[in-house]
Amino acid sequence: MDLKDKKCVPCSTYVPPLSLEEKERYMKSLSPEWKLIEDNSRLRRDVKFKNFKRALEFANEVGRIAEEEKHHPEIFLGWGHCDIELWTHTNNNLVENDFIVAAKIDEAHARLFPASV
Q1: pLDDT above 70: percentage of residues in the chain
Q2: Is the four-CA dihedral 89, 19, 14, 107 of positive or negative sign?
Q3: Averaged over 92-103, what is the pLDDT?
Q4: Largest Cα–Cα separation, the chain
Q5: Given pLDDT bands bounded at 50, 70 and 90, which one contains residue 11?
Q6: Cβ contact 61:55 at 8 Å
Q7: CB of 89 closer than 8 Å to CB of 15
């Protein structure tokens, strides 16, 4: 099953982080714009847009996905960009949920903006 087709599992308590090998395997399922940062403990994607309206539209869709999955990224919004960071706060690292949300964000970007913007 593709990551984008999975649902996040609630993790209100500590969940062990993925190993670096698992993170690297999951990275292959995401668009190449995603990067591992902060000692491989966070995912980040910086998305550029031609104006604020499109960046806001994308941010709103990311917010909808986050609410649906009950797994919330940091969203940095400004004129011509919307940058996303994902990690699991209970362990300050990455678990499968982070990659599920990232895959859903990739799908949303491709759906909303089929041509490069």
Answers
A1: 98
A2: positive
A3: 97
A4: 40
A5: confident
A6: no
A7: no
Contact status, residue 88 vs residue 95, Cβ threshold 8 Å: yes
Token couple for 41: 């403990």
For residue 32, CA distances in Å to 15, 44, 45, 79 come to 26, 11, 9, 23
Token pair of 33 as six digits: 């714009």
- Identify the bridge partners of residue 31 per DSSP, sorted by sequence position: none
Query: What's the CA gap between 64 and 60, in Å, rounded?
Result: 6
Q: Give dist(CA 87, CA 50) in Å, integer.
A: 28
Tokens coding 107: 């799908």
Q: What is the pLDDT of residues 30-75, one digit of tens each?
A: 999 999 999 999 999 999 999 999 999 999 999 999 999 999 999 9
Rounded-to-integer distance, Cα 96 and Cα 29, Å: 12
